[in-house]
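User: Here's a chain of 294 residues. Predict its fold as C-alpha coordinates.
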Amino acid sequence: MNAVSKSLSLVATLSSLLFTASAASSTAWWQIPSQWPLTQPLQQLNADVQQGWALLQCQHGSAVQLWLPAQTQQLSTFLKRLAAWPEHPLAGFASCLQVRWYHANEVHCELRGERQRLHCELPLLPSETSSTHLVFAEQGIASAAGDYQINLPLHASINLLAHELAHTLGLADEYPLTGAIAHNYCMGRYDHPSLNVVVTTEKQLSSVELEALWRRLPWQFAVADWRDLGQSLGDDQWLLGSAANSIGLHAIETCNLVGKYAWRPVDYLTAMHYVDVYSWPQLYLELIERNSGL
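Assistant: Prediction complete.
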Protein backbone atom coordinates (compact mmCIF):
# COMPACT_ATOMS: atom_id res chain seq x y z
CA MET A 1 0.00 0.00 0.00
CA ASN A 2 1.51 3.37 -1.00
CA ALA A 3 1.77 6.44 1.23
CA VAL A 4 -1.34 8.07 -0.18
CA SER A 5 -3.42 4.94 0.45
CA LYS A 6 -2.15 4.59 4.02
CA SER A 7 -2.98 8.22 4.74
CA LEU A 8 -6.45 7.93 3.30
CA SER A 9 -7.20 4.78 5.25
CA LEU A 10 -6.95 6.76 8.49
CA VAL A 11 -9.50 9.43 7.66
CA ALA A 12 -13.26 9.41 7.79
CA THR A 13 -15.38 7.01 5.74
CA LEU A 14 -16.07 9.75 3.23
CA SER A 15 -12.40 10.14 2.46
CA SER A 16 -12.08 6.41 1.86
CA LEU A 17 -15.06 6.43 -0.46
CA LEU A 18 -13.65 9.28 -2.48
CA PHE A 19 -10.29 7.53 -2.73
CA THR A 20 -11.93 4.29 -3.87
CA ALA A 21 -13.91 6.10 -6.57
CA SER A 22 -10.78 7.87 -7.80
CA ALA A 23 -8.44 4.90 -7.65
CA ALA A 24 -10.81 2.48 -9.36
CA SER A 25 -9.01 3.00 -12.67
CA SER A 26 -5.32 2.46 -13.36
CA THR A 27 -5.32 5.45 -15.72
CA ALA A 28 -2.82 7.84 -14.11
CA TRP A 29 -4.43 11.10 -15.19
CA TRP A 30 -7.43 10.67 -12.91
CA GLN A 31 -5.84 9.28 -9.78
CA ILE A 32 -5.58 11.47 -6.69
CA PRO A 33 -2.41 13.63 -6.91
CA SER A 34 0.12 12.46 -4.32
CA GLN A 35 0.95 16.01 -3.18
CA TRP A 36 -2.63 17.26 -2.83
CA PRO A 37 -3.77 17.43 0.84
CA LEU A 38 -7.12 15.83 0.06
CA THR A 39 -7.98 14.82 3.62
CA GLN A 40 -7.69 18.29 5.14
CA PRO A 41 -10.81 19.90 3.59
CA LEU A 42 -12.81 16.70 4.01
CA GLN A 43 -11.96 16.43 7.70
CA GLN A 44 -13.30 19.95 8.25
CA LEU A 45 -16.79 19.01 7.08
CA ASN A 46 -19.41 18.31 9.71
CA ALA A 47 -20.94 14.86 10.13
CA ASP A 48 -24.14 15.69 8.20
CA VAL A 49 -22.21 16.90 5.18
CA GLN A 50 -19.91 13.88 5.28
CA GLN A 51 -22.95 11.63 5.42
CA GLY A 52 -24.42 13.45 2.41
CA TRP A 53 -21.25 12.89 0.46
CA ALA A 54 -21.09 9.26 1.48
CA LEU A 55 -24.57 8.72 0.01
CA LEU A 56 -23.37 10.03 -3.35
CA GLN A 57 -20.32 7.82 -3.79
CA CYS A 58 -20.38 4.66 -5.87
CA GLN A 59 -18.51 2.71 -8.50
CA HIS A 60 -21.52 1.61 -10.50
CA GLY A 61 -21.11 1.43 -14.26
CA SER A 62 -23.80 4.11 -14.75
CA ALA A 63 -22.20 6.53 -12.29
CA VAL A 64 -22.11 10.22 -13.20
CA GLN A 65 -18.46 11.18 -13.58
CA LEU A 66 -17.66 14.18 -11.38
CA TRP A 67 -14.48 15.94 -12.56
CA LEU A 68 -12.85 18.19 -9.94
CA PRO A 69 -9.65 20.25 -10.14
CA ALA A 70 -7.05 18.67 -7.86
CA GLN A 71 -5.70 21.99 -6.60
CA THR A 72 -8.38 24.51 -5.71
CA GLN A 73 -9.16 26.68 -2.72
CA GLN A 74 -12.90 26.20 -3.30
CA LEU A 75 -13.08 22.49 -2.53
CA SER A 76 -14.52 22.66 1.01
CA THR A 77 -17.25 25.11 0.00
CA PHE A 78 -18.04 23.06 -3.07
CA LEU A 79 -18.31 19.80 -1.13
CA LYS A 80 -20.63 21.35 1.44
CA ARG A 81 -22.90 22.66 -1.31
CA LEU A 82 -23.00 19.44 -3.29
CA ALA A 83 -23.64 17.34 -0.19
CA ALA A 84 -27.24 18.63 -0.37
CA TRP A 85 -27.75 17.04 -3.79
CA PRO A 86 -29.52 13.89 -2.46
CA GLU A 87 -32.43 16.12 -1.40
CA HIS A 88 -32.95 17.59 -4.89
CA PRO A 89 -35.90 16.35 -7.00
CA LEU A 90 -33.51 15.30 -9.81
CA ALA A 91 -31.20 13.37 -7.50
CA GLY A 92 -33.02 10.13 -8.22
CA PHE A 93 -31.78 10.31 -11.82
CA ALA A 94 -28.16 11.00 -10.85
CA SER A 95 -27.72 9.58 -7.36
CA CYS A 96 -24.39 7.91 -8.02
CA LEU A 97 -21.19 9.94 -8.50
CA GLN A 98 -17.65 8.85 -9.20
CA VAL A 99 -15.02 11.47 -8.42
CA ARG A 100 -12.23 12.07 -10.90
CA TRP A 101 -9.49 14.53 -9.92
CA TYR A 102 -7.62 16.33 -12.68
CA HIS A 103 -4.69 18.69 -13.23
CA ALA A 104 -4.84 21.68 -15.57
CA ASN A 105 -2.52 19.98 -18.05
CA GLU A 106 -4.83 16.95 -18.27
CA VAL A 107 -8.19 18.66 -18.81
CA HIS A 108 -8.13 21.76 -20.98
CA CYS A 109 -10.72 24.38 -19.98
CA GLU A 110 -11.19 27.84 -21.48
CA LEU A 111 -13.74 30.64 -21.59
CA ARG A 112 -15.32 31.40 -24.96
CA GLY A 113 -17.54 34.08 -26.44
CA GLU A 114 -18.94 37.32 -25.08
CA ARG A 115 -20.61 35.53 -22.18
CA GLN A 116 -17.42 33.66 -21.28
CA ARG A 117 -19.01 30.24 -21.37
CA LEU A 118 -16.91 27.41 -20.00
CA HIS A 119 -15.60 24.81 -22.45
CA CYS A 120 -13.57 21.80 -21.29
CA GLU A 121 -11.98 19.03 -23.32
CA LEU A 122 -11.78 15.66 -21.58
CA PRO A 123 -9.33 12.83 -22.37
CA LEU A 124 -12.06 10.21 -22.65
CA LEU A 125 -11.79 6.64 -23.78
CA PRO A 126 -14.32 5.56 -26.46
CA SER A 127 -16.18 3.51 -23.88
CA GLU A 128 -16.68 6.60 -21.68
CA THR A 129 -18.32 8.90 -24.20
CA SER A 130 -21.85 7.72 -23.36
CA SER A 131 -21.44 8.37 -19.61
CA THR A 132 -22.58 11.66 -18.10
CA HIS A 133 -19.66 13.92 -17.16
CA LEU A 134 -19.95 16.93 -14.82
CA VAL A 135 -16.78 19.00 -15.24
CA PHE A 136 -16.09 21.69 -12.65
CA ALA A 137 -13.57 24.48 -13.15
CA GLU A 138 -12.58 27.59 -11.21
CA GLN A 139 -14.72 30.05 -13.20
CA GLY A 140 -16.92 30.61 -16.22
CA ILE A 141 -20.59 30.35 -17.20
CA ALA A 142 -22.17 26.90 -17.34
CA SER A 143 -22.50 25.21 -20.71
CA ALA A 144 -23.42 21.84 -22.16
CA ALA A 145 -21.03 20.08 -24.52
CA GLY A 146 -22.92 17.46 -26.47
CA ASP A 147 -25.46 15.14 -24.89
CA TYR A 148 -23.36 13.86 -22.01
CA GLN A 149 -21.01 16.60 -20.79
CA ILE A 150 -21.79 19.62 -18.62
CA ASN A 151 -19.20 22.27 -17.76
CA LEU A 152 -19.79 24.23 -14.56
CA PRO A 153 -17.95 26.70 -12.33
CA LEU A 154 -17.21 25.51 -8.81
CA HIS A 155 -19.45 28.24 -7.39
CA ALA A 156 -22.51 26.92 -9.29
CA SER A 157 -25.64 26.51 -7.23
CA ILE A 158 -27.34 23.14 -6.85
CA ASN A 159 -30.25 24.31 -8.99
CA LEU A 160 -27.91 25.45 -11.78
CA LEU A 161 -26.34 22.01 -11.70
CA ALA A 162 -29.82 20.48 -11.83
CA HIS A 163 -30.88 22.72 -14.74
CA GLU A 164 -27.87 21.70 -16.81
CA LEU A 165 -28.18 18.06 -15.83
CA ALA A 166 -31.83 18.16 -16.87
CA HIS A 167 -30.71 18.80 -20.44
CA THR A 168 -28.96 15.42 -20.49
CA LEU A 169 -32.21 13.89 -19.20
CA GLY A 170 -34.33 15.37 -21.98
CA LEU A 171 -35.63 18.74 -20.73
CA ALA A 172 -35.27 21.79 -22.97
CA ASP A 173 -34.83 25.45 -22.04
CA GLU A 174 -38.07 27.38 -21.63
CA TYR A 175 -36.59 30.88 -21.78
CA PRO A 176 -36.14 32.83 -25.07
CA LEU A 177 -33.31 31.25 -27.04
CA THR A 178 -30.86 33.35 -29.04
CA GLY A 179 -28.36 32.94 -31.86
CA ALA A 180 -27.56 29.61 -33.48
CA ILE A 181 -29.18 27.65 -30.66
CA ALA A 182 -32.55 29.30 -31.37
CA HIS A 183 -32.31 28.62 -35.09
CA ASN A 184 -31.19 25.01 -34.72
CA TYR A 185 -33.62 24.04 -31.97
CA CYS A 186 -36.70 25.91 -33.17
CA MET A 187 -36.25 24.86 -36.79
CA GLY A 188 -36.04 21.20 -35.79
CA ARG A 189 -32.31 20.82 -36.40
CA TYR A 190 -31.37 20.19 -32.77
CA ASP A 191 -30.89 16.63 -31.56
CA HIS A 192 -32.73 16.78 -28.24
CA PRO A 193 -35.66 14.77 -26.83
CA SER A 194 -37.37 18.01 -25.70
CA LEU A 195 -39.72 16.29 -23.29
CA ASN A 196 -41.16 19.54 -21.92
CA VAL A 197 -41.36 21.76 -25.01
CA VAL A 198 -43.04 21.39 -28.41
CA VAL A 199 -42.75 23.85 -31.28
CA THR A 200 -45.39 24.70 -33.89
CA THR A 201 -45.25 26.81 -37.03
CA GLU A 202 -48.75 28.19 -36.48
CA LYS A 203 -50.84 28.96 -33.42
CA GLN A 204 -54.10 28.14 -35.19
CA LEU A 205 -54.78 24.60 -36.40
CA SER A 206 -57.58 22.52 -37.88
CA SER A 207 -59.12 19.76 -35.78
CA VAL A 208 -57.14 17.11 -37.68
CA GLU A 209 -53.88 19.01 -37.11
CA LEU A 210 -54.68 19.60 -33.45
CA GLU A 211 -55.39 15.93 -32.82
CA ALA A 212 -52.14 15.01 -34.59
CA LEU A 213 -50.28 17.45 -32.32
CA TRP A 214 -51.92 15.88 -29.27
CA ARG A 215 -50.81 12.42 -30.37
CA ARG A 216 -47.15 13.46 -30.63
CA LEU A 217 -47.01 15.31 -27.32
CA PRO A 218 -44.48 13.75 -24.91
CA TRP A 219 -47.05 14.45 -22.19
CA GLN A 220 -50.08 13.14 -24.09
CA PHE A 221 -50.77 10.69 -21.27
CA ALA A 222 -51.53 13.67 -19.00
CA VAL A 223 -54.03 15.33 -21.39
CA ALA A 224 -57.37 13.50 -21.57
CA ASP A 225 -58.64 14.92 -24.87
CA TRP A 226 -57.08 16.72 -27.83
CA ARG A 227 -59.71 19.44 -27.50
CA ASP A 228 -58.08 20.46 -24.22
CA LEU A 229 -55.16 21.88 -26.22
CA GLY A 230 -57.04 24.78 -27.78
CA GLN A 231 -60.11 26.95 -28.06
CA SER A 232 -62.59 26.37 -30.86
CA LEU A 233 -62.96 29.32 -33.22
CA GLY A 234 -65.60 27.63 -35.33
CA ASP A 235 -65.28 26.63 -38.98
CA ASP A 236 -62.95 23.75 -37.94
CA GLN A 237 -60.28 26.08 -36.56
CA TRP A 238 -58.67 25.91 -33.13
CA LEU A 239 -56.56 28.54 -31.36
CA LEU A 240 -53.75 26.80 -29.46
CA GLY A 241 -53.61 27.26 -25.70
CA SER A 242 -55.09 25.40 -22.75
CA ALA A 243 -57.09 26.63 -19.79
CA ALA A 244 -55.25 28.02 -16.78
CA ASN A 245 -54.21 25.59 -14.04
CA SER A 246 -54.34 22.64 -16.44
CA ILE A 247 -51.80 20.42 -18.14
CA GLY A 248 -51.88 21.07 -21.86
CA LEU A 249 -50.31 23.75 -24.08
CA HIS A 250 -49.05 26.96 -22.52
CA ALA A 251 -47.14 29.51 -24.57
CA ILE A 252 -43.49 30.34 -23.82
CA GLU A 253 -41.04 32.64 -25.64
CA THR A 254 -38.41 30.02 -26.42
CA CYS A 255 -38.69 30.38 -30.21
CA ASN A 256 -39.84 33.97 -30.61
CA LEU A 257 -36.57 34.93 -32.31
CA VAL A 258 -37.28 32.75 -35.33
CA GLY A 259 -41.03 33.31 -35.51
CA LYS A 260 -42.06 29.91 -34.19
CA TYR A 261 -44.44 29.08 -31.36
CA ALA A 262 -43.20 27.12 -28.35
CA TRP A 263 -45.35 25.47 -25.70
CA ARG A 264 -44.84 23.73 -22.37
CA PRO A 265 -47.31 21.57 -20.45
CA VAL A 266 -47.74 23.80 -17.37
CA ASP A 267 -48.78 27.43 -16.99
CA TYR A 268 -46.23 28.49 -14.37
CA LEU A 269 -42.50 29.17 -14.29
CA THR A 270 -40.20 26.22 -13.82
CA ALA A 271 -36.49 25.74 -13.19
CA MET A 272 -36.05 25.20 -16.94
CA HIS A 273 -37.15 28.80 -17.46
CA TYR A 274 -35.34 30.49 -14.57
CA VAL A 275 -32.52 28.70 -12.77
CA ASP A 276 -33.34 30.49 -9.52
CA VAL A 277 -36.92 29.18 -9.55
CA TYR A 278 -37.00 26.00 -7.49
CA SER A 279 -39.90 24.48 -9.37
CA TRP A 280 -39.66 20.95 -10.77
CA PRO A 281 -43.16 19.81 -11.74
CA GLN A 282 -43.97 16.22 -10.93
CA LEU A 283 -44.97 15.82 -14.57
CA TYR A 284 -41.39 16.68 -15.63
CA LEU A 285 -40.00 14.02 -13.34
CA GLU A 286 -42.43 11.50 -14.78
CA LEU A 287 -41.46 12.50 -18.32
CA ILE A 288 -37.79 11.90 -17.51
CA GLU A 289 -38.61 8.57 -15.90
CA ARG A 290 -40.66 7.41 -18.87
CA ASN A 291 -38.00 8.52 -21.34
CA SER A 292 -35.19 6.83 -19.45
CA GLY A 293 -37.11 3.60 -19.00
CA LEU A 294 -36.72 3.64 -15.21
